[in-house]
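#random but structural
TW: two for the price of one
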Amino acid sequence: MKNTILYGIPNCDTTKKAMAWLNKNNIAFTFHDYKLQGITNKKLAGWCDIKGWETIFNKRSTTWRELPEAEQKKVTGQAAAIQVMLNNNSIIKRPIIEQEGKLVVGFNETDYKGL
């Protein structure tokens, strides 16, 4: 049996869409809530190594837009991006599905069919 983990925030519309899709397609998953359970530096670094920090870090988010400009300018590489994501976990792209070392970032039905 594949171990599927969906990382996100429960009130996020995109996370809700992903959860609904997984349920509709009878794919069992564990939900990891960033807000309640947090996220580790090691996990973020692993994701960034696989997908690139620019994919994991959501610069279109409200959280990003609300950061002071000085803070935004510090995000020039993976280490700085991870630090901001650790301090503001709403800035992590959602949802992220992790399954046997494979990552799917965001909601895309075509990518989800590979699960």
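TW: number two ↓
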Amino acid sequence: MVETLLAIGILASIFVGFNIGGSSTGIAWGPPVGAGIIKKTTAAGLMTFFVFLGGWTVGRNVMDTLSEGIITTELTLSAGVAVLFFIGLGILSANIFGVPVPTSMTTVGAIAGLGLATGTLNYATVAEIISWWIVTPIIGFWIGGIIGRYIYPAVNQRVQIKKSDGPLLTLNRDGRVPKPTFGPNTTWSELVSTTVVLIIGCYMAFSAGASNVPNAAAPLVGGVGGLEPDIAIVIATLAIGVGGFTIARRTMESVGGELSDIPLLAALFVMVTASTITTLLSWIGIPISLVMATVMTIVGIGWGRATRPVTVREAVTRDSEQSEIVPGAITAEEMEGKPAAPIGEEEPEEVLNAGDLFNPRAIIKYISMWIIGPSISTILAYGFFRLVPGLA
């Protein structure tokens, strides 16, 4: 019986990891793939390795919180398998609405529902987690706002990330030992910028592993007949990798429309900021959504760049009738390599005619799913374990 239950749990874990790989790989590697800097297969390979590294190191802290911190008793194998199915339902419902699922939040909701049903909920831990869920979007927004208003325009003026025709590096076989050399059109600037892009992509993959591997692995750890943490991490990583090599090929082309609408340089700022926030919170054991930090950083950078025509004094005194806020300022790729207008002055025509960076209705839909997803998983888990207490 235990072996059968464990087999079902492993299949559920693979399903969850597979879907995580499909969405997370697109977020981490969509911009570099779209810019032609890296191929989809190479991106999926790097994603798998660094997801494993993130899950194996920082992710263990999140696993401890999920398996032991949210409820006051150890998460049993049967309860863990049920939790995985609730996570899978959350992913499925989010896919129906076309919104990336906050997997970490859905996982916490399901385990919290178990705790409510059995009277074992650790209210202090849950309160701490929820407080970080409230603070994280605010942090991402304001960091993004500072970057968009003060940092991005200056960097955008000096740095251009372009992909030249032909390979970046080739092998010189004139000597006994082949040596790497520049491609026919490669410059030092292109080599350095490409290296930075790849490092940032790997960093985001590491962050995705730290936050997402525990969601697929933790419910199977502990209890009679449960898996060892190392084995659970490997299974979850392999499932995420399969998702990266298969269904993520499509998401890397679109990245849901968010990152693909802004220049690669702006996307890199988003990736670094969101990854750092997610990694730090994972380090202290807080289950957090990488998508949450990513979306709010995008909004923050767009807002910060758009408000440059308004000075701080004008914003505080509301005396900004003569200044136009340009919601599409950061999408004006014609301005790459050109100086931005000083703060408080009107933007050039190329910026005024740019399309909007984000659709407010889309942002509302994302935020709604961050609330609805965990709520649904909590209610379903609570009802299930109240009806079937023997599985808890």
